[in-house]
Write a structure and sequence with these properties.
Elements lengths: L3 E4 L9 E5 L12 H13 L5 E4 L4 E6 L6 H21 L4 E6 L4 H14 L10 H4 L5 E5 L5 H22 L7 H15 L2 E5 L1 H6 L3 H7 L7 E7 L10 E5 L1 E5 L8 H5 L7 H15 L6 E10 L11 E3 L5 E3 L7 H12 L6 E6 L3 H7 L4 E5 L3 H14 L3 E3 L17 E2 L7 H10 L6 E5 L5 E2 L9 E2 L4 H9 L2
Parallel strand pairs: 1-6, 2-4, 2-5, 5-6, 9-11, 9-14, 10-11, 13-17, 14-18, 15-16
Antiparallel strand pairs: 3-4, 7-8, 8-11, 12-13, 15-18, 19-20
Helix pairs in contact: 2-3, 3-5, 5-10, 6-10, 8-11, 10-15, 11-14, 13-15
The structure holds ligand BES and zinc ion (2 copies).
């Protein structure tokens, strides 16, 4: 559910409140009794608990001690995870509205806290009969903080809504979200946020000779789509656009190189996590009216072993004219991304970033804790992205991208093959994509954090919407 965020200028005696306080804050204005005050001080400073709850029946008061020690991105992340805990408490007390009070001047922390609260407040309930009963009680977050302006709240709303859109898309199963349906959802999002959407159908994709996307789609009943999302504000700061490319495999069975079910195929509705991140980012950027020209490209299809499915051994001619020997039909993400990456060239982009749930090797390497990154962008641009990643805690881990890894995808029969050897699987996938890029480019393999089965704090259960916040922060920083 979308949580309403409002700015307020005073407290009333019945408000449920969260006090974001420093160690030496004055708690007197908040009407604590001496006993309560002693309790708060004891809990916070002697027992060093993260949050303190005071239940007064007609209202609940939470105290979150703010500790600015340590790296600033960790301070922000602590605010988000504290918010997750408080939301759980607030729900136990059936709290409908919560007022976040900035006791000291902690604007940046207030923003991180409210973001954490709203992201924690998400549920995917569409398919429950008793969805109403399962909803979170919290509906409104009020902010009492002199440093927070309406503009800040607009930015918060934009990025939260974008992230939740991405989660919804990832959580939707294939029984609903086919490639054509994904296009409809993107069009609806474009209408709502104000960005333009163009959808290419199968015959247009054929005329563009997108051989990779068409090959992956061959075993499917549903047609593929190729989606172009564009946010072009009148006074854009950039002359050449920034292009995001998202892997839109709405379901990955592996194709003829079929995946086993348990722990492997069963969660593969998440394989359009890159597409969801791109759609969510464009939504947020357009909603916030950021003055940057951004384009999103989303090739979409499912990957199935149906009648005419592409087969190991096939040689496919791609959109840019290169040939690919397919040795594993489960390495389908790179096939569809390659066509989108070579299509991106026509925009003469300043920078291209692709996001994809691309390899199990990325999950094996770093798990859900970060994004595996590599590419040819300048050090300066890489550093900007890494800074954004730390700030929003969608951290980038840069992998080596040495030329030698490119040797592992040489083919005996075609220009390249679609798998490397048993080693460095995320990097050989990246090297494959690199062949289709002719501009500064970064590849984000989000296979680890895009889908978290048991849930990951404020990031939610199942689809996390990872990617939206880092892209939004990056564009905001331009
Ligand atoms: N969609 C998968 C990668 C994936 C794995 C995403 C786990 C999320 C969680 C991708 O299409 C795939 O199957 N990759 C293969 C590549 C291999 C055949 C070279 C893999 O990683 O095993
Ligand atoms: Zn696959
Ligand atoms: Zn896949």
């Amino acid at each position: 559910m979308n949580t309403a965020i409002k700015k307020v200028s005073k407290l009333s005696a019945k408000d449920n409140i969260v006090l974001l306080a420093n160690k030496n804050s004055d708690f007197k204005p908040y009407g604590f009794s001496d006993k309560e005050l002693k309790y708060v001080v004891d809990q916070v400073y002697k027992k060093k608990s993260e949050i303190v709850t005071i239940n007064r029946y007609e209202r609940v008061i939470f105290v979150v001690p703010i500790d600015r020690k340590g790296e600033v991105h960790k301070v922000y992340e602590r605010a988000r995870t504290d918010a997750f805990e408080i939301l759980a408490e607030a729900n136990k007390h059936n709290v409908k509205a919560l007022t976040v009070v900035d006791v000291e001047s902690n604007d940046d922390i207030v923003k991180a806290f409210v973001e954490g609260l709203c992201l924690s407040n998400y549920r995917f309930l569409k398919y429950f009969k008793d969805a109403k009963e399962r909803e979170s009680s919290l509906q409104t977050v009020n902010i009492l903080a002199s440093g927070i302006e309406k503009a800040d709240i607009d930015l918060l709303n934009a990025v939260v809504e974008g992230t939740l859109l991405a989660r919804d898309l990832v959580n939707e199963p294939l029984s609903y979200l086919t490639a054509p349906q994904l296009s409809k959802e993107i069009q609806a999002a474009g209408k709502k946020a104000g960005f333009n959407v163009e959808v290419f159908n199968k015959s247009k994709i054929e005329s563009l000779k997108m051989g990779g996307l068409l090959a992956v789609n061959k075993g499917s009943v549903d047609p593929p789509t190729f989606n172009i999302l564009e946010w072009k504000p009148a006074k854009a700061k950039n002359k050449k656009p920034i292009v995001f490319v998202g892997k839109g495999v709405v379901y990955d069975t592996g194709g003829l190189s079929l995946k086993p079910t348990k722990g492997s195929m069963d969660m593969m509705k998440c394989d359009m996590g890159g597409a969801a991140a791109v759609a969510g980012a464009l939504y947020a950027i357009a909603k916030a009216k950021l003055p940057v020209h951004v384009i999103g490209l989303i090739p979409a299809t499912d990957n199935r072993p149906g009648g005419n499915a592409y087969a190991p051994g096939d040689v496919i001619k791609m959109h840019n004219g290169m040939t690919v020997e397919v040795l594993n039909t489960d390495a389908e993400g790179r096939m569809i991304l390659a066509d989108a990456l070579s299509y991106a060239q026509k925009y003469e982009p300043e920078m291209v970033i692709d996001l994809a749930t691309l390899t199990g090797a990325a999950v094996a390497a770093i798990g859900k804790y970060g994004i595996v990154a590599m590419g040819t962008a300048s050090e300066k641009e890489k550093n900007k992205l890494k800074d954004s990643g730390r700030r929003v805690y969608e951290r980038l881990v840069e992998f080596p991208f040495w030329d030698e890894y490119g040797d592992l995808i040489k083919s005996e029969i075609a220009d390249i093959k679609n798998i490397g050897g048993p080693h460095a699987g995320s990097i050989t996938a990246g090297k494959f994509l690199e062949k289709f890029t002719q501009y500064p480019w970064m590849h984000f393999d989000i296979a680890g954090p895009a889908w978290v089965e048991g849930g990951d704090n404020y990031r939610g259960k199942g689809g996390t919407g990872v990617g939206v916040r880092i892209l939004f922060d990056y564009i905001k920083s331009i």
